[in-house]
Write a structure and sequence with these properties.
By secondary structure, the chain is of the alpha/beta class. The protein has two domains: 5-206, 2-enoyl-CoA Hydratase, Chain A, domain 1, CATH 3.90.226; 210-256. The chain contains twelve helices and nine strands. The strands form two sheets. A six-stranded mixed β-sheet has the order 1-2-3-4-6-9, with helices on both faces. The protein has a three-stranded mixed β-sheet with strand order 5-7-8. Helix 5 (117-123) packs across helix 6 (151-159), helix 6 crosses helix 7 and helix 10 packs antiparallel against helix 11. The longest helix has 15 residues, at 228-242. The two termini are 27 Å apart.
């Protein structure tokens, strides 16, 4: 794994850190897309991982695009439109596709500015918690461009169409408290406590059976496009499988015996 992306495993919890702090962790830096995709694939394949945390090194979560690369004379964005189209599909758009397919619950611990693609990256997570100094902006419009990495999709689902439209059309920045009020994050904590709180939340999630977490996430994803009948059908199918797991019997036995269940083997 490239040193521009740090991956740390602590039991059932995996922490992924964007590690280009001197450049504010651009997600489109050369090699970064490949690193994020590879890490996500590895996490998804590892049945021992029950939850993942995504954060940024230094003072920023992610500033999004690598503007120095975009401004360069040989920038991919200066190519003919067909080539730029393919550059997006084969490049940064691999990140939302891979993260959205991730079966493991993902927490974004936003430790500073999450700007443009960085805001979109945070929105790809299932849960977002923010340090007090975190800020969020979908400011592509101020460069005369649009969210090219799925931001219009993820931001709208995170905070609703009206507020997403306000952020995308104005390019304005909101602080952590406003992000909390709008539902973009589920909690705001002191900057110095951010990772401890993220790991505490991850620990509460990881205390549950891994297969059940993946099933629950699959079911939640299905609600985006399926009708009630479709969700109920999938719920019944997944629940039938869950009832056959030894962890289900352990949970029932533990409840009856008034003790904490042991899911160490799930």
């Amino acid at each position: 794994m490239s040193n521009q992306l740090l991956v740390e495993r602590d039991g059932a919890i995996c922490t992924v850190t964007l590690n280009l702090p001197e450049r504010l962790n651009p997600m489109t830096a050369p090699g970064m897309v490949d690193a994020i995709v590879a890490a996500t694939e590895a996490i998804d394949r590892d049945s021992g991982i029950r939850v993942a945390i995504l954060t940024g090194a230094g003072k920023a979560f992610s500033a999004g695009g690598d503007l120095k690369r975009v401004a360069a004379a040989d920038s991919p964005t200066r190519r003919p439109p067909v080539e730029v189209h393919n550059w997006y599909i084969e490049g940064v758009q691999r990140i939302p596709r891979m993260i959205d397919a991730l079966r493991v619950p993902l927490i974004a611990a936003v430790n500073g500015p999450a700007i443009s693609g960085g805001c979109d990256l945070a929105c790809m997570a299932d849960i977002r918690i923010a340090g007090e100094s975190a800020t969020f902006a979908s400011n592509f419009i101020r460069l005369g461009i649009i969210p090219g990495d799925g931001g219009a999709y993820f931001l709208t689902r995170a905070i609703g169409s009206a507020r997403a439209a306000e952020m995308i059309f104005t390019g304005d920045t909101i602080d952590a408290r406003q992000a909390l009020a709008w539902g973009l994050v589920s909690r705001v904590v002191p900057d110095g406590d951010l990772m401890a709180e993220a790991k505490k939340l991850a620990g509460r999630i990881a205390a549950n059976p891994g297969y059940a977490l993946r099933m629950a996430k699959r079911l939640m994803r299905e609600t985006r496009h399926a009708d009630l009948d479709g969700v109920l059908e999938l719920s019944a199918a997944l629940q039938a499988i869950a009832h056959t797991a030894p962890e289900y019997r352990e949970a029932v036995d533990a409840f009856m015996e008034r003790r904490r269940p042991d899911f160490s083997g799930a």
